[in-house]
Amino acid sequence: MIYAFNANEILQMAIDVEENGLVFYELAQEKVEEPEVKDIFRFLAGEERAHKKQFESLKAALPESAKAETVWDPNDQMVQYLQMMADLHVFGKAGVSEKYLEHVKSTEDALNMAIQFEKDSIIFFLSLEEAVEDRQARLKVMDLINEERQHIKKLALKLRQLRR
């Protein structure tokens, strides 16, 4: 492991990504007309909300040792690296969802953007899983990665139906 972040830092970044995903799916519901797609986005907003709560619960339950620095890092390079990883996520920063949704002109656009969001989430969470040392947090991140995979499947199936 090149970088070892404490679980507290990892979980805060995950909370931020989930919050931005929640905003995306809530706004995306307003951009599409198809009731089935609105339902999918409503469902995924609920999933993001649940994931955020799970990460918040994990963070709140962390022992003090999980909040301590894992490596001496006087220049906060590890925190900067973790922030950069979150920023590279499609919706890593607050307010980006609204900007991206301005370019959505069709239901297909919205579904493609949602698929990209879910793919980026998997990549981000895989990086987090590798970076965190707390076993409980690692297992929870792996569970969420599996849920994100199911989200992609649901979105891709709907996209395929629309293209027929």
Structure description:
The chain is mainly alpha-helical and 164 residues long. It has helices at 7-31, 35-60, 77-88, 96-101, 107-131, 135-163. Helix 2 runs antiparallel to helix 6 (135-163) and helix 5 packs antiparallel against helix 6 (135-163).
Short description:
The protein has 164 residues and is mainly α. Helices cover 75% and strands 0% of the residues.
| Helical content (DSSP H or I, runs of 4+) | over 70%
Q: Per DSSP, what share of the residues sits in E-state strands of 2 or more residues?
A: under 5%
Radius of gyration: 17 Å
Give me the oligomer status. Answer: single chain
H/I helix tally: 6
Principal-axes geometry comes out as elongated
Tell me the total number of β-strands.
Answer: 0
Through-space gap between termini: 45 Å
Extract low-pLDDT stretches. Answer: none
Largest sheet: none
On the 0-100 scale, what is the average pLDDT? 80
Structural class: mainly alpha
Elements, N to C (H/E): HHHHHH
Question: Which short descriptors sum up this protein?
Answer:
6 helices; mainly alpha; 164 residues; elongated
Please render the helix and strand layout as text.
Elements (H helix, E strand, L loop, with lengths): L6 H25 L3 H26 L16 H12 L7 H6 L5 H25 L3 H29 L1
Helix pairs in contact: 1-2, 1-3, 1-5, 2-6, 5-6
